[in-house]
Amino acid sequence: MMKSLLCWPEPVIRVQSLAASGIREIPERYIKSPSHRPSLNNDDVSQPQEVDVPVIDFQNLFSSDRGLCEEALRCVHNACREWGFFQIVNHGVSHELMKRTCEVWHEFFNLPLEEKQKYANTPATYEGYGSRVGVEKGASLDWSDYFFLLLMPLSLVNQSKWPAIPASCRELVAEYGSEVVRLGGKLMKVLSMNLGLEEDSLLKSFGGEENVGACLRVSYYPKCPQPDLTLGLSPHSDPGGLTILLPDENVGGLQVCRKGRWLTVKPVPNAFIINIGDQIQVLSNAIYQSVEHRVIVNSNEDRVSLAIFYNPKSDHLLEPCKKLLTKDRPALYKPMTYDEYRLTIRAKGPCGKKQVESLKSPRQSD
Ligand code: OGA
Ligand code: NI
């Protein structure tokens, strides 16, 4: 492994502590260049325009009523094509479990700093309590802290790296994780069918049910005295397969880039927000594309979100599905393992869609 990935290049500052210190102005490191600030595309940052991202009744996708099922499949397909994002309701994950898992993470982040520091992460694996992605010295920083942990494959799970306090945390995360990963498997089937592939095709390309990788990133976006100068999370596309996000039910902040504009997502109660990652873009040969998104912060309330990333087996070679290739539309991407792909992001941090674009076969990019 590259030496530079073993430790952080400078002392880590917890954004939550910074926010709690009562500063009126944020440090230089968090100030984005004018063109990257949230205010540019919004007339009024304090009241960003909220949009409705397509909502799909997940149950209908598996209904015996063919009309309902086909309609729901079509909605997912269109959302994947046009937004790269959709929301699902009636997804089968217990609302009570969702709520309790959110609460337990609120409690974790409200613990004294010393307790959280026991889990301080390093860029070697990113597992644990962190405050930045990327190891470039002097890089611009985002206004958030996070906790990152592995849920799958089971052989790599190490619960001793998960918070021991609150006492119910490990149990809740394990239960929540397994429910959401199961949901991820169903989504993979839906996307396969919509692409005209065998139902288990995408999952097989990911290395099969027992080999897929899944991880949880809980993000904590503290309230910020100058929200119009910074971002909670810089523009990026998710590097993996699919993301299943449980946004804060009280505080908005997720923005999706659509036709060159940043739109704030209006979360539907008890829904998950699903988005396409770079590896689905590769497998589908860009029939589905990952879409850039970012998070804005505000001066009134902290925000907590839970993202589960459903990813390929890390050493599995991924390339566009043969069945989707035609003479007019040959493979756009060269084969690569997810391990290799992820390395760049782990070194450089969020970089919009640069990483997946750089994968393009030379033939295509001239
Ligand atoms: C992510 C992400 C969005 C959010 O973690 O990749 O995009 O609302 N999170 O926290
Ligand atoms: Ni993301």
TrEMBL record:
Keywords: Dioxygenase, Iron, Jasmonic acid signaling pathway, Metal-binding, Oxidoreductase, Plant defense, Vitamin C. It catalyses: jasmonate + 2-oxoglutarate + O2 = (1R,2R)-12-hydroxyjasmonate + succinate + CO2. Transmembrane segments: none annotated. Residues 211-312 form the Fe2OG dioxygenase domain. GO terms for biological process: defense response; negative regulation of defense response to insect; regulation of defense response to fungus; regulation of jasmonic acid mediated signaling pathway. The keyword Metal-binding applies. Its cofactor is Fe(2+); L-ascorbate. SUPFAM superfamilies: Clavaminate synthase-like. GO terms for molecular function: dioxygenase activity; jasmonic acid hydrolase; L-ascorbic acid binding; metal ion binding. The keyword Cell membrane does not apply. InterPro entries: DIOX_N, IPNS-like_FE2OG_OXY, IPNS-like_sf, Oxoglu/Fe-dep_dioxygenase_dom, Plant_2OG-oxidoreductases. Belongs to the iron/ascorbate-dependent oxidoreductase family. PANTHER family: OXOGLUTARATE/IRON-DEPENDENT DIOXYGENASE. This is Fe2OG dioxygenase domain-containing protein.
